[in-house]
Amino acid sequence: METKIEIGIWRIRRYEERKNMNADFRIDGKVIETKRLILRSFKQTDLEDFYEYASVEGVGEMAGWKHHENIAESQSIMNSFISEDKVFAICLKKNNKVIGTVGIEKYGLEDALTEFKDYYGRELGYVLSKDYWGKGLMPEAVNAVKDYLRLRAYRQQGNIHEDAEYRVF
Description:
Layout (H helix, E strand, L loop, with lengths): L1 H20 L10 E2 L3 E4 L6 H8 L4 H5 L7 H14 L2 E6 L5 E9 L15 E7 L8 H20 L13
Antiparallel strand pairs: 1-2, 2-3, 3-4, 4-5
Helix pairs in contact: 2-4
C-alpha cells in the first residue's frame, strides 16, 4: 500500500514539474554573471553593439536568420527583445559590450512529437559576434542560462527559497 501512495505522489509531482517547466518566461530584470560575462535584458543603449555583430554576414545565418541590412532593422528586432523580455544580451564583463544573445522560448512541439510527450522544456536560441567565436564564451553563456532555468524551476516548486543568490563561476 505504501508503494502505491509513493508512486501516486511522484506522478503528481512530475505533472507539477512539467507544468512549471513550461510556464511563461520573462527575464524580469534578472542578471546572470559568469567569470567573463554578464547576461541581462537589452537596453536601448545596446543598439550600436547589436547592429555591429548582427549586420555581419554569416553571423545571423548561423542562427537561422539573415544578417541585418541596416540599423533600423536592428532597432526593430531589439525593440521586440525588450518588449517580449525573453532574450538575454550577452555582455563582456570587462566593458559591458553586447556581443550576442541567448533567447528562451517554449519548445512548442510537445504535442506533435509523441516520443517527447512526457517531457516539457525550453528551447534556447543563441548567436555570438564573429569576433568572439572559438573563445568558449557561448558555452559559458548557455550553461549559465540552463543553470538559471533549472534553479528557477526548483524555486517554483518550493524547493529553494526565492532570496537564494545565484551566480555561476
